[in-house]
Specification:
By secondary structure, the chain is α/β, with parallel strands linked by helices. It has 2 helices and 3 strands. 30% of the residues lie in helices and 20% in strands. A 3-stranded parallel β-sheet has the order 2-1-3, with helices on both faces. α1 links the parallel β1 and β2. The protein is globular and about 45 Å long. It starts with 14 loop residues before the first strand and ends in a 12-residue tail after the last strand.
Length: 79
């Protein structure tokens, strides 16, 4: 006799990554890499610390921040 297993719903948890990188080519490559790692990942992009701080105001639930430390204007440590 075949066993019957009750299917349980597994919650889908969306992860949000904020990537702060001033070099567009590097940023685009990292976005492709990060999105390819996990389907349920949203990657927000910023080219400056000012843009990143603005994104943090509108998206406070960031799970991971990848921050270039040598940014123009305000570096990553100052942010």
């Amino acid at each position: 006799m075949a066993e019957v297993y009750e299917k349980t719903a597994v919650p889908v948890i969306m992860k949000t990554i904020l990537l702060v990188e001033d070099h567009l080519l590097v940023r685009e490559g990292l976005v492709l890499l990060l999105k390819g790692l996990e389907r349920k990942t949203a990657v927000l992009e910023a080219g400056t610390c000012k843009e990143a701080l603005s994104l943090l105001d509108t998206h406070p639930a960031i799970d991971l921040l990848l921050l270039d430390l040598d940014l123009p204007g305000m570096n990553g440590l100052e942010a």
